[in-house]
C-alpha cells in the first residue's frame, strides 16, 4: 500500500509564499528530513494545532462518580498514577469549569437525567469517557433499572473495557483521547450528534 503521509509542510497547513508557490518543489530541508520531522525539529505549527495541544494539557474532568469504577478513577490523582503530569488533577466541582466527563460506573435510569444535565452544562469543546463495561453497555446489569450504555444519552469519545478498569486503563484512554484531539479528530458530539 502506498505511503499516504503528507510530504510537504503545506500539507500541515503552513502557508508561506514559498510553500504555496505552484512551480516550487520541496525545499532542501523538506527533502532531507521529511515534513513531519522538520515540523517537529523546528517547532513549526499552526494556531489550530497549538490550541489543540494546549487543550490537551488542561482537560479538566468533572467531579462525578457513579459506582465501583469511581474508586479506580479517583486513584489517578494519586502520586502513583499522577494525572497532574497532564495538567488534569483539578477535578472541577462545577460542570461549567470542566471539559471532560468520565462516566465511571453503571448509570441507573434515575441518574440518566442528572447526568445529561451535567453534560449539557459543560462548555464546548467537551469530551466523554465511558469507563468500564457498565457505563459502556450496561455490563452484567441487563435489567430494567440500568441504562444499557451511556451513549444512549450523551455522545461518547472513548470506551474503556473491563470490570473494573484499572487506573492504567483509564490513563490509556485519556492518552488516546489526547492523541485523537491533537490529530484533529472532532469531539463525539460533532461526529455523532447529541441525542434529543
Ligand atoms: S464495570 Fe465493574 S467496577 Fe465498574 S461499575 Fe460496573 S460492576 Fe462496578
Structure description:
37% of the residues lie in helices and 7% in strands. It starts with 16 loop residues before the first helix and ends in a 5-residue tail after the last helix. It has helices at residues 17-20, 28-33, 35-42, 47-56, 69-74, 109-121, 132-137, 167-182, 188-191, and strands at residues 100-104, 127-131, 158-160. The radius of gyration is 20 Å and the shape is elongated. It is mainly α. Strands 1-2-3 form a three-stranded parallel beta sheet. The model has no long low-confidence stretch (mean pLDDT 88). The chain binds iron/sulfur cluster. The site of iron/sulfur cluster has 11 residues, from α7.
What can be said about this structure in brief?
The protein contains 9 helices and 3 strands. By secondary structure, it is mainly alpha-helical. A 3-stranded parallel β-sheet has the order 1-2-3.
